Amino acid sequence: MKRSDKIYITLISLHGLLRGSDMELGRDADTGGQITYVVELAKTLGKHPKIGRVDLITRQIFDRKVDDTYSEPFEHLDGNSRIVRIPFGPRRYLRKEVLWPYLDEFETGVLRHFRKENRIPDCIHGHYADAGIAGSRLAYILGVPFVFTGHSLGISKKTRLLNAGMNASKIEERYNISTRINAEEAALDAAAMVVTSTHQEADEQYAQYKNYSRKKARIIPPGIDLDRFKISPKSKTPDVVNNIDSFLNDPKKPMILALARPDERKNLPALIHAFGRHAELRNISNLVIIAGNREDISQVHPGIRRVYEKLLLLVDKYDLYGSAAYPKHHNADDIPYIYHRAAKTRGVFVNPALTEPFGLTLIEAAASGLPIIATDDGGPRDIIRNCQNGRLIDALDIEKMGEIIHDVLSDNNQWQRYSRHGLRGVKRHYLWKTHTRKYVNEVQRILTRKRKIIPAALKKSNLPIMNRLVVFDIDNTLLGDREAFVKLMDLINESPIKVGFGLATGRRKESVFKLIREKTLPAPDLLISAVGSEIYYGPHMIPDEQWLSHIDYLWDRESILSALRGTPGLVLQPAREQRRFKVSYFIDPSLSPTVREIQLHLKNAGIRSKVIFSHGQFLDVLPIRASKGLAIRYISSKWALPKSYILVAGDSGNDRPMLTAGTLAVVVGNYSRELETLRG
Ligand code: GLC
Ligand code: MG
Fold first, then answer.
1. Which of 39, 378, 452, 632 has the least C-beta neighbours within 10 A?
2. Is the minimum distance from the CB of 533 to ligand 1 under 6 angstroms?
3. Using CA atoms, how far apart are residues 572 and 551, in angstroms rounded to an integer?
């Protein structure tokens, strides 16, 4: 296989603290299972023979409160994979709920990254709603397929919180939930494939979304790296295991192990109740709870604090001193040793979470030979069905929970069977190698098959890797002289370097598309239409929404219309020429005030706008931030192409701002009088 035939995949995962080793899982609500998942995926993909490169893109963070690694622009992972960190928004670490306003900036940063690499990925895979929307927009602009994994879903969360009695406006305020749900809808709409871990996710959870189609879903459960869980008898027991022992009167008793983020949803108190109330269970076993790392509980986030306070109070209430351990610290690298120790005591792993979409810890426990007992929900259901290595529980039925744990601990044959089944089941269903093999097969399929269910037929855009850009006005410029036009296009097409081809026109996009369809014009890489108030990219002419929100500043079309109503010599152009950010008139200069006077009139009426006069007969009013010229500047910065690498050409007044934007510029021979002042 040639190097260039290999697939280049971009994974995007924006929130939390992401690095390749010694991950700080459980440090906060955003640094959990998703982080492990994307890092492991990137690492194993990086070693796959068909994959040429994997960039795992995340946020670059400069914050004294977090480690320096998170500010490194690059971090090598494994084989052909690495982490790429792109700065956006404030420098400091932010929780995921407040990242939304900065995603535009992120997208621009990613485009610059591709430019520097001089390569466009074959496929973009966004993880969670934030990277879902940003990744799908990038994929559209670039004309590459998009893959989405939600990890957890906004609609499910909203339902859960509503059921828990929180009111809708509070949910909105605290979690920005509608922004998240809209982002998920957009990602699902754009996705060529949705990767889920369980049947429940594919059949029920995603099905709550309008833009989801079950046909797009592929159930590819996550995997683990078995080597991590092989413990050599010679290796040194880490401190945390000794620390657990020091909590316990008899550390040899079977260990009931729970390992989860200190998150209320993980429902750890239920397990303490179940243990505390079951006298026989307390007799025969120890309870060990590993819930993140804590320093001073009074200093942590209130949600996390509540969890710790409850744990400590319950230990005291049931007087579990000597039979329960709840160490303050552990490292990610210690975790295999904890499972290993639990298995050695013939213990059991319990996950009592209220909901469990995924349950990576269950697979890790199984790989260590621990039977599992877990909440009757999507992840555990699939795992126990596949492996037959434990029991499902009702997270709310505390008595029953205690009984089932007792049952598993006290039947030795059953324990052996569960332990064996778990080890075998993991090898069969849950290895990263298996996951990656399935994943790469599916990605290959979407890269090669007839793309019926992908909204956009795929053709990669050249924009991020163009070396030069030419942008031409259409009327009286490109279409001024047919013979010259053909020569010009040949020149561009035969150029040894990649030249992007752009159009900039007063026309609306529909009328440009018509010219393209009728083959009067070749399809451009980018289009600036409606006198610079709209920008479109790539083979699918994806609108630049960021540009629209940028020029929206101080725009007030109603006031413009009423201020100019009745002005002599001004007649509104037909409705189809009126655009969201463009008010257009025919002007008869022999009857109308001068353009300067019109400008002044608007200004005196308190209206901030830009007035553009063309061909002696058109008058356009635009937002102050819009014009063909400002659009060119914006594009130059967005796509990181220096202005001196851009050449523009035009003939009339609406081209003036573009001709004077600091790029190379050509005024064509048949120019209109209002450009005379540019001479020289
Ligand atoms: C195009 C547009 C028109 C605009 C003129 C000048 O002809 O259709 O609305 O006023 O260009 O910019
Ligand atoms: Mg023109």
1. 452
2. no
3. 22
| Residue range 71-80, pLDDT digits in tens | 999 999 999 9
81 close to ligand 1 (CB < 6 Angstrom): no
Question: Residue 417 carries which DSSP code?
Answer: H
Q: How is 293-328 classified by DSSP, letter by letter?
A: --S-GGGS-HHHHHHHHHHHHHHHHTT-BBTEE--S
Question: Residue 241 CB: number of other CB atoms within 10 A?
Answer: 19
* Other Cβ atoms closer than 10 A to 314: 19
Nearest partner of 502 among 457, 532, 546, 545, judged by Cα? 532
The 10s digit of each residue's pLDDT in 135-185 is 998 998 888 899 999 998 999 999 989 998 999 999 999 999 999 999 999
- Whether residue 461 has pLDDT greater than 80: no
**Token digits of residue 1:** 């296989």
Q: Could you give the C-alpha distances from 582 to 346, 476, 529, 552, in angstroms and in order?
A: 74, 21, 10, 11
Residue 261 and residue 30: Cα distance in Å, rounded? 10
- Whose CA is closest to 236, among 380, 116, 336, 111? 336
The residue whose CA is least distant from atom 8 of ligand 1 is: 507
* Cα of 631 from ligand 1 centre, angstroms: 16
Rounded to the nearest 5 degrees, what angle is found at the Cα of 250, between the Cα atoms of 249 and 255? 115
Q: From 211, 86, 205, select the one nearest 136 (Cα to Cα).
A: 211
Q: Tell me how far the alpha carbon of residue 627 lies from the centroid of ligand 2, in angstroms.
A: 14
Alpha helix stretches (DSSP H) within 83-201: 103-117, 128-142, 154-163, 168-175, 177-190, 199-200
pTM for the whole structure: 0.75
